[in-house]
Design brief:
heterodimer; A: mainly alpha; globular; B: alpha+beta; six-stranded antiparallel sheet
């Protein structure tokens, strides 16, 4: 990526007065503010349109939050039911479980049934909210995101069950605003304060429909995406800013928070370690600086993560969630694993055996692309195949543009910053493939989803931002307009698609 | 520069909106509503002269046809009567008779002689008028919690997979008022159809306008 960071603004602002410069720097950019409001409006529409529990595992995440809020305890007690009486009643009334994944089944459409449910809920005692907390598919997740959702849950505690669910979803949308801001800052760090590049990058994070859909549901993903975006931005700052202590502490604390949100975030650690080492090394103060930076980083990370590790160990809970795979690592056949990864992306070679769980080649297109750009609900709401093909063509064109821009600026590219980004991508992909392979070995099925790559969406945002630079100057503004307009159109079609599936 | 950016934005959004309206205007939906029960297996064996009813069913949209799947245990189809009646008073609202021209496990769409209006609370019954047993398809009794299947008054463990169909398919555009009304359910005590109309208006105006302002500001600040 081009890295003409910060210097351009310094140069251009030399002609302005100090007062004007101060005002300019302290005021949030108008483009970011408009984008944030647009993102929030769309997130609000998603939050209030998708029927209850029609996002992946939302029922389990809500039960987790309710257990924390009403019992003050983590879920997983084998002597208790998964969900409370209140949630069970609400789920049945809205026909949520039957609707999940079944395209022909609709949620409850009857106002009379809603009124009947409301009357029954009014008769429930306080205990009906607190009698859940049993084993839960989400209970292996660390608690941070669920604790954050207790705040909107309590704020709406005077309302009915669905009011609390809506409040949690809307609060989750606020985390998407953090993601968008972090991507804006990352693009600013990489490209310098170039508003079109920053808007292109942040718009992808804020306006990609799957991102909005997931961020407007209850679950750990929204917070994970926000913290991952902050990690990538802070990592870039550490590398380019010679590892200032405040940046190193912030980077490692945020990474620690991400680890407390979802085990996926462990994949960020190698890239974070690289960022700290590179930043410290660049300070040119010798090995002592590198050692100090390493110690500061480790201390900041440990300070955030250790309390959870201690609590989890004391309560005999899995502290690292899904990192503990389905089959033991000793069972892994390295040759078969390599073959699985190869066939995921590339045509099978004559000497390779077919890895049975993989679907139609390339599996990467189905899992990483199609499910990232459009697999709503419980993955059952899809675009026609031609739409995916069209979107892939647009994405490949953007990658081509970014590659051209990168090639033109190859002499000024910060290679270690690139290495940081590449390591983040490779680590996450390696972790996902490792987990999926081990699960496939025990279950025979593939479980990865496109959304598992969304912690890297900030880096994907740099692609359209860089692609703009490949265009002649006079085409950049119209291209930006077309790109952002395209995302708005995709949002409207997506909301229409989802509303039609559930309500028509 | 700003003008060209906004023109490009407006052109893409404008074409997109036209396409959205066109798709919604061309796509037709014939289903009025469904109980949300998948036809997985026979719900109950219905012997000659026995009746299997699913009740009570809230009619959330008018319909003129009922879809169902029948098993006949490998025999030719048996004649049956399909009745839609008021769930409380048993008053018949519509009744149709189906002859024997269907096969085992075949899906049937039964036309009714009149429209069953929205707002009714009904029972939908299949009475076996043949001389061999039939089995309407459905799924477990958890499939549709508000209603249940009864054979000659005895509650069964399953729900019948009825789908209620309109004579004249509606376009998705024509269904927008129903979509708005249905989307407003089960989102909290604050939600209402009026609030969801406001939300729809906001959706159509705000994101595109704000995004246009963002593009304009970004291009302005870059020059």
């Amino acid at each position: 990526m081009p890295t003409e960071h910060l210097h351009r603004e310094t140069a251009s602002s030399a002609t302005t007065t100090p007062g004007a410069r101060g005002r300019r720097l302290s005021r949030p950019p108008a483009a970011l503010l408009f984008l944030l409001v647009a993102t929030f409006v769309l997130g609000g529409v998603w939050a209030l349109t998708v029927p209850p529990f029609q996002a992946p595992d939302e029922f389990a995440h809500v039960a987790y939050v309710q257990s924390l809020a009403e019992r003050g305890d983590l879920p997983g007690d084998g002597n208790r039911p998964l969900e409370s009486t209140e949630q069970h009643l609400a789920t049945g009334a809205a026909n949520s479980l039957q609707t999940a994944q079944q395209l022909l089944v609709k949620p409850e459409w009857s106002k009379r049934q809603e009124n009947l449910w409301s009357a029954r809920e009014d008769r429930l005692g306080e205990h009906a909210r607190a009698d859940g907390g049993g084993p839960n598919p989400a209970s292996s997740n660390p608690p941070l995101s669920y604790l954050s959702m207790v705040v909107p849950y309590e704020a709406a505690s005077g309302g009915d069950f669905f009011a609390r669910l809506s409040a949690m979803r809307l609060a989750s949308v606020l985390l998407l605003l953090v993601t968008v801001t972090a991507v804006w800052l990352l693009a600013g760090t990489v490209f310098g304060p170039r508003r079109p590049q920053q808007l292109a990058a942040a718009a992808l994070a804020g306006l990609l429909p799957m991102m909005t859909f997931l961020s407007a549901s209850v679950g750990p993903d929204s917070l994970l995406y926000a913290l991952s975006a902050l990690t990538l931005w802070l990592g870039a700052r550490v590398i380019l800013g010679n590892a200032r202590v405040v940046d190193v502490v912030a980077l490692c604390a945020v990474t620690g928070l991400a680890v407390l949100t979802k085990a996926t975030a462990y994949a960020l650690i190698p890239a974070v370690a690289l960022a700290v080492l590179v930043g410290a090394w660049r300070a040119r103060e010798g090995l002592r600086r590198v050692a100090v930076a390493g110690l500061v980083a480790t201390a900041a990370f440990a300070l955030v993560v250790t309390p959870w590790l201690v609590i989890a160990r004391a309560n005999d809970r899995p502290a690292t969630g899904q990192l503990q795979g389905a089959s033991p690592a000793s069972d892994v056949n390295a040759r078969e694993l390599a073959s699985y990864v190869w066939e995921y992306y590339l045509p099978r070679l004559p000497f390779q055996t077919e890895y049975a769980p993989l679907g139609e080649w390339p599996q990467a297109y189905e899992t990483w692309f199609k499910r990232a750009v459009g697999a709503f609900g419980w993955l059952e709401i899809r675009w026609p195949p031609a739409v995916y093909a069209g979107l892939l063509a647009v994405w490949l064109a953007l990658i081509g543009g970014a590659a051209v821009a990168l090639f033109r600026r190859r002499r000024t590219v910060d290679r270690l910053l690139m290495a940081f980004f590449v390591l983040a991508v490779v680590s996450l992909l390696a972790g996902l493939h490792w987990s999926e392979y081990r699960i496939a070995e025990s279950s025979g099925g593939l479980l990865s989803q496109g959304r598992y790559l969304f912690p890297l969406l900030p880096l994907a945002g740099l692609v359209p931002a860089a692609a703009l630079l490949a265009l002649p100057n006079r085409w950049r503004a119209p291209a930006l307009g077309a790109f952002v307009g395209g995302l708005i159109v995709l949002q409207l079609f997506s909301i229409g698609l989802v509303a039609t599936r559930f309500y028509a | 520069m700003r003008r060209r950016a906004l023109l490009a934005f407006g052109a893409v959004v404008g074409v997109g909106l036209i396409a959205l309206v066109a798709v919604a205007g061309l796509e037709h939906k014939s289903g009025a509503f469904t109980l949300g029960v998948a036809p997985a297996a026979g719900v109950a064996r219905v012997a000659p002269q026995q009746e299997l009813c699913q009740r009570p069913i809230d009619v959330v949209a008018p319909f003129e046809k009922v879809w169902l799947q029948l098993g006949t245990y490998g025999r030719p189809g048996q004649p049956f009567a399909l009745t839609v009646s008021d769930a409380s008073s048993d008053r018949t609202i519509a009744r149709a008779r189906v002859a024997t021209r269907y096969g085992d496990n075949e899906a049937l769409t039964v036309p009714l002689p009149r429209t069953v209006p929205e707002g009714e609370r009904v029972a939908v019954c299949v009475r076996n008028a043949g001389d061999r047993a039939i089995a309407p398809y459905g799924n477990s009794g958890l499939s549709n919690q508000p209603s249940a299947a009864y054979r000659d008054g005895d509650k069964q463990g399953g729900d019948v997979a009825f789908v209620f169909i309109r004579d004249e398919p509606s376009t998705v555009l024509g269904l927008v008022p129903s979509i708005v009304e249905r989307a407003s359910l089960f989102h909290g005590g604050w939600s209402s159809t009026a609030a969801y109309w406001v939300l729809l208006g906001l959706l159509l105006v705000a994101p595109a306008s704000l995004a246009a302002l963002a593009v304009r500001a970004a291009v302005r600040d870059s020059t």
